[in-house]
């Protein structure tokens, strides 16, 4: 059955739209919201307003650059959750309105499943089963992907997400939001062994990032007592050491998950998977343990509608539609 689907993503601070034609992603239009920078984090109400301002032009651009008329669409897909209630509501309402006006089906997508399915946009595609480390500003999970949509979370953070740890550490160093990409940039110029931090040991495959956040706060405080310009004088080394530590925490659990499940196909997804250190450390671990690894293109790591479109394509093939009474689910989870 041939299909042309418009997908909309609005769960956090990117307004995005993409068109997928018979399983091939044609484009991925993203409007990032710079407004949050001056507040040092995403302000939910401002995110909703910015989605309202951006959504018409983002959707129009996706349609026009793909050369697709509204009348050619087979379905409208949207992110139902997890995410910010007000932000999700903008995408859900817009999708419902369009589906109703065009008389075509609606497809709801789980944002975390979509991060995993971003691996099916480009080659090489993983085969089932595989493990996916999904690391973003709101989530840190190891997902066992047996098939689509058979996904189970086998490990996850019990407190902060890895992206949050990057962003909060950056904030403590006076860097603007989002700090993850900046830590990555400075880390490339520093010594990852200059400073060391201790890991919070969790049972099973779970993570905890709140301890390192506090440890880092005290580390900076103590160092600044000795040298008030400690951060300025050592920024590259601090970033490199902290990043090395955070990556170690992530990969240690993935290694354990691989041993426990016997699965050697390993994927990474979500905003933090854009991190250059994580990518190179993963490649080294893969060499050592004979893993086959899958790393998405940068544009499909952070929030984007192309991954929502990919997930929607799988649902379309199964006639998995939802009705117009659908509402956002801010806490929508992958099964545990
Ligand atoms: O997946 P995403 O775009 O949005 C959420 O669903 O949260 O992830 C955003 C997170 C932010 O915490 C950001 O700092 C982090 O991904 N991030 C990075 C890098 N690029 C984005 N963290 C470390 N290194 C990067 N290069
Ligand atoms: Zn995300």
> Helicity level, as a percent range?
40-55%
> Which structural category fits the helices and strands?
alpha/beta
**Distance between the ends:** 33 Å
The structural domain count equals: 2
Beta-strand segment tally: 11
Largest sheet: 6 strands, mixed
> Which ligands accompany this protein?
5'-O-[(R)-(carboxyoxy)(hydroxy)phosphoryl]adenosine, zinc ion
What is the overall shape?
A: globular
User: What amount of the residues lies in strands?
Assistant: 15-25%
Low-confidence stretches: none
Say what the CATH topology of the largest domain is.
Nucleotidyltransferase, domain 5
Tell me the name of the CATH homologous superfamily of the largest domain: ATPase, nucleotide binding domain
At CATH's second level, what is the architecture of the largest domain?
Answer: 2-Layer Sandwich
């Amino acid at each position: 059955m041939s299909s042309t689907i418009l997908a909309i993503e609005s769960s956090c601070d990117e307004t995005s739209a993409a068109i997928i034609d018979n399983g091939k992603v044609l484009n991925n239009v993203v409007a990032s919201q710079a407004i949050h920078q001056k507040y040092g984090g995403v302000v939910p109400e401002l995110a909703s307003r910015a989605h309202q301002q951006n959504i018409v032009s983002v959707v129009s651009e996706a349609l026009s650059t793909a050369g697709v008329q509204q009348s050619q669409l087979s379905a409208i897909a949207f992110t139902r959750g997890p995410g910010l209630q007000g932000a999700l509501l903008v995408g859900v309402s817009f999708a419902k309105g369009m589906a109703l006006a065009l008389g075509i089906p609606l497809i709801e997508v789980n944002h975390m499943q979509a991060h995993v399915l971003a691996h099916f946009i480009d080659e090489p595609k993983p085969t089932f089963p595989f493990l996916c480390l999904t690391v973003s500003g709101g989530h840190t999970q190891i997902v066992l992907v047996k098939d689509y949509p058979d996904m189970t979370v086998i490990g996850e953070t019990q407190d902060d997400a890895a992206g949050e740890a990057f962003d909060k550490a950056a904030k403590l160093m006076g860097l603007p939001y989002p700090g993850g990409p900046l830590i990555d940039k400075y880390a490339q110029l520093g010594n990852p062994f200059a400073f060391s931090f201790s890991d919070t040991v969790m049972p099973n495959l779970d993570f905890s990032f709140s301890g390192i956040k506090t440890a880092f706060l005290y580390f900076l405080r103590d160092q600044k007592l000795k040298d008030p310009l400690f951060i300025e004088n050592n920024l590259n080394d601090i970033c490199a050491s902290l990043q090395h530590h955070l990556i170690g925490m992530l990969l240690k659990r993935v290694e354990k998950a691989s041993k426990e499940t016997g699965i050697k196909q390993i994927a990474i997804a979500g905003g933090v998977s854009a991190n250059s250190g994580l990518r190179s450390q993963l490649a080294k671990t893969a060499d050592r343990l004979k893993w086959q690894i899958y790393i998405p293109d940068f544009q499909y790591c952070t929030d984007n509608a192309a991954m929502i479109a990919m997930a929607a394509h799988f649902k379309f093939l199964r006639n998995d539609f939802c009705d117009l009474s659908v509402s956002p689910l801010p806490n929508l989870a992958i099964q545990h």
